[in-house]
Amino acid sequence: MSGVQSRLSSLVGHLTGSTPPSFEHRFNNHTLSPTSFLPRAAAIEPDAEAIYHVTANNKILRRSYIEFADRARGLAYYLKKHGFRRVGILCPNTPAFLESIFGIAAAGAVNVAINYRLKKEDIAYIFDHGDVDMIIVDQEFESLLEAYQSQHPNVPIIVDTDTDASEGELTGPFDHAVLEGLKYDLENSAQGWENLESQPADEESPIALAYTSGTTARPKGVVHTHRGCYLAAMANIIDAGLNYHRGRAKYLWTLPMFHASGWTFPWAVTAVRGTHYCLRKIDYPEIWRLLKEEHVTHFSAAPTVNTLLCNSKEAERLPNPVHVTVAASPPTPHLFEQMTNLNLHPVHVYGMTETYGPITKGYYLPQWDDLPLAEKYQKMARQGHGFITSLPVRVIKTEVPEGTVIDVTRDGKEIGEIVFVGNICAQGYYKDPEATRKLFAGGVLHSGDLAVWHPDGAIQILDRAKDIIISGGENISSVALESLLATHPDILEVGVVSVPDSHWGERPKAFVTVKEGRELAEQDVIDWARNHSGISKFMVPREVAVVKELPKTSTGKIRKNVLREWLTLRPRPPPAHSPIPPETTITSQTFGNLPSKGLVSHQLIRSSGPFPLAHPSTAHADITPGVMRFQPYDHLRRKSDRTVDLDSSPAKMPRPLPRARVSSEAPSETSSSTSPERAADDDTDFFMAQANDSQSSIGVANFRDSQVQSSSVFVPPIGRLPPEILIAIFSKLVSPLDMRNCMLVCRNWASNSVGILWHRPSCNNWDNLKSVAASVGEPEALFTYGDLIKRLNLSALTEDVSDGTVLPFTQCKRIERLTLTNCSKLTDKGVSDLVEGNRHLQALDVSDLRSLTDHTLYVVAQNCPRLQGLNITNCIKVTDDSLLAVAQNCRQIKRLKLNGVSNVTDRSIMSFADSCPAILEIDLHDCKLVTSPSVTTLLTTLRHLRELRLAHCSEINDSAFLTLPEHMIFDSLRILDLTACENVKDDAVVRIVHAAPRLRNLVLAKCRFITDRSVQAICRLGKNLHYVHLGHCSNITDSAVIQLIKSCNRIRYIDLACCNRLTDASVQQLATLPKLRRIGLVKCQAISNRSILALAHPPRANHPTVSNLERVHLSYCIGLTMDSIRPLINNCPRLTHLSLTGVPNFLEDNLTAFCREAPPEFTQQQRDVFCVFSGEGVTRLREYLNRDVRPMREETEATMYDDDEELDEDEGQVTGLMHATDLNDEGYIDVGPPSE
């Protein structure tokens, strides 16, 4: 070895020998668990507000972080003491749920939280599959455990009463368990959180089992680990902007905590020491209250929830921005715009239970600011990129063998399946290795959702694989089509499914709901879609169904499996119904002879055996070895009040809440414990409880406690029919005997039929009324009939009804519609006693009760927060004072009729405009003290106003309309009645038509100063105009009327009475209207037989020659003869009314024999010239005139035009307008001969 090599070798040896041995350690690592966030928050900021909650007994509960941590710690020690390792949770969003999430994990146990909207059998399966050894349940849902308890009687149940426990003694078993745990800790050296598992030994151990469920397979338990929840929560902190350094985060729990571990937000909000605003159920007024008063900063919701929230009457722009995490289907551009205008800033995320909730986010880029709104919102609706704690999301090809993973081209066109890899993918399915293998086939987590991958790396979902519609070889994304259809200005929600097609294989069909205050015909949607630039021809649905409500999952996504069922069952959604107890045989002795239709006599329902009566008992705890059950307070609620039938259907099932939980503000008919079954893909759904609780329940939910049959008893198929099918069938029965026989079949059938009978009991005669009153007052009745009555109408008995008559009905506190029209003997006492304590009243009609005073309306204001309709026509003693109270307390009013209430002034009208933004109709006929400023305020404030009737409000002038803001368009206004508002002139009419372009019915009768200029302005309404009344507008000429007819060819009703300047030219043009049904030409003395012959033989292109006329008013048209009337009668087969009063050629005795009788108030002189044929009189006149004349050729068989097409949905309203505006001839009877 050379010297150089020797020296280098020596140096290397020296260095090697001097290197110390390696030091291995794990000091730079700790196990991850989000449970540690709670004790950390309590240590940093113990007095910070952690929880805000309105309890079940309507008290506001606030808890600090130290209180939150102590209660979770107490529960943890309780679980450790008893050795519970798997704890089930069956609760809404309550503090107990939140405390249980942390307490269970701190005890080293696993929580198994369940959707309380599932069927009992699914709940039993999940708890059994999850191996729970203890269950925490909210008192409202305790009955849902009956099926599980029958199989596992020794599993302890801890009930949370969700009452205010901050004052006095602790109020429920859950609180007792917490207290027991705290005492246990104190007795064992008070080690606090140090002796709990806020950091588990194995971060890959499960912290929760989150169950998905479907209609075709058993629910699967997704294993959520401590590590996964920690990293998902950290991602939500970052991507949801939960920044505590800019003010405390205030998170509103609209999302259910049971869903995918609440997307890990229980831990994320706690980590930043934010405030949890717990919400038992979706309540839009309450959400807006919290947004406005508590300044909520964050919440999460599906587009459906946000749509209804934005369209809520309480909606208004917030002063501070609110961060909204939007999930499920992509929000539409219109929804983005609505939310942004309200200062709700949406961020679209996407995920599933298998990814701990959200795993991607549509990140907003600054360069989008300059894009057109439509393009910007389209980019915002994409699902975007993966969360920061996960690897990038990918889209892979689907036309490859299983396990093969090949990315699609990032061109925004090629469709593939979304897959995930990384930290926030769940561990797998509990006790289901085969499903786990399929979930992770090829080393990626498969979502089952189809999407495209854009060049910038963002993904965009097109649909679930099973929801893609393949029509004639074209792939149609139902999600994309839904988003496009949702841009229609009148559509609120859309669901699209495929229907079979013999030519194309399948094609799309759309189910839509309509925005409040809007109208929409199915064909209008199809026509609009055909003209939409973004909807390809092959995507246009051939069928559209307009429905009241779309079926949704517990978390707000549209249930397309139910839509598909509707295709095979019926076109409309199933009616609402109530859950019922299990079937129990009813003997023929149970019900005797029904007293009358609509009744079940109280004498027929006393029975033992099948219907054991419940007796009040005190609350007690049944504690035996291995069993701990806390029984509910029977005197607060019946057990069956909370029962959900094992075969409950996926429809909405309204029922009364337990009495202890009834809100003092506006009790809901819909308990949050009832909801549809979940769909097969519900693991990607997001939360929305049913919002509309105004529907009347017709099933019975107040049975006495019943004996539960063994689950092993065989039930035939007919016994398993869901309640909505039974109700639909029973509702078709017309015979009381048939209904009685159905009630005798079994308890299930009885429960679903008695509600139909009692929903609106028949009180059309005294015998029925007495029977109803006796049954309602029976204390031992099986059914609480008073609670079943939703509509009470005594108007058929009118003057015979007195205060004593209605006394038995004062105990009916669930009446929704109360009609007392013309019951003139009723006084304030009778009406106010009926209203007192009834917080469910939605419509009250006391028209023509002239003795009523302000007292009654004060009672209404105090007791009826849900009032939507009020009719006090001719209640002349009512003043502004009580109406102000009604306006301020009944803010849900939609229909208000104050006709003839002469004391009404601008003060009360403006109060209604300011306080009741949901008003759709207001009728101020003959309210002479109402002036122009009120009209201006009504129009500018009530943006959903559909009908405004101002007949005979003589103080109204042009300023009412000329002062309207120039930019405002009243798109909802359909009916405007200005009868006898003589100070309204041409300038006002021009402004009205410009501001309300969709007016359908316009009444300007006796507006004597309007001219052709007004008529020319009305022409702008085009096809929207159906009804126009220009009676006594004597300045109108032929040229204007002819232009009107050419421009508005859908007119069906037109009145031109006393327009003396009109000639045959106008009427001949009127005859060309294809849909004309009723025409008023009273005192148009210049018209001749030529006009009538034109009406009899309408010269219409592409239309039949048979006229559609139903009512023709020709009184005082003195030039008419039999030569024109005979053809008119013979060529108008639908004619039911013909008036010829004052026409000399028809006052002969042989013709007047077929007339109807003159009104009794007419003088003899008026009777002498009266000549009106109606109904059968028209038929008899036709037969008489044709008796000696050869019958005219029958042409009805050749009719191509069906008058039922495009029927006016406001038909009843039009009829009302006719009566209100003197279209009938009685309004034109002269004492002497007609004047020129």
UniProtKB/TrEMBL annotation:
GO BP: any one term: fatty acid metabolic process
Residue intervals of the AMP-binding enzyme C-terminal domain: 481-557
Keyword Zinc assigned: no
Record region (Disordered): 635-680, 1193-1213
Residue ranges annotated for the AMP-dependent synthetase/ligase domain, each copy included: 40-430
Biased composition regions of type Acidic residues, renumbered to the chain: 1200-1212
Highest taxon above the source species: Eukaryota
F-box domain: residues covered: 718-763
Tagged with keyword Ligase: yes
Pfam family name, one: AMP-binding
Keywords associated with the record: Fatty acid metabolism, Leucine-rich repeat, Ligase, Lipid metabolism, Repeat, Ubl conjugation pathway
GO CC terms, sorted: SCF ubiquitin ligase complex
SMART domains: LRR_CC (SM00367)
Occurrences of domain F-box/LRR-repeat protein 15-like leucin rich repeat (ranges): 877-1098
Biased composition (Low complexity): 663-677
GO function terms (MF aspect): ligase activity
Family affiliation: Belongs to the ATP-dependent AMP-binding enzyme family.
Record-given protein name: F-box domain-containing protein
Protein source organism: Penicillium decumbens
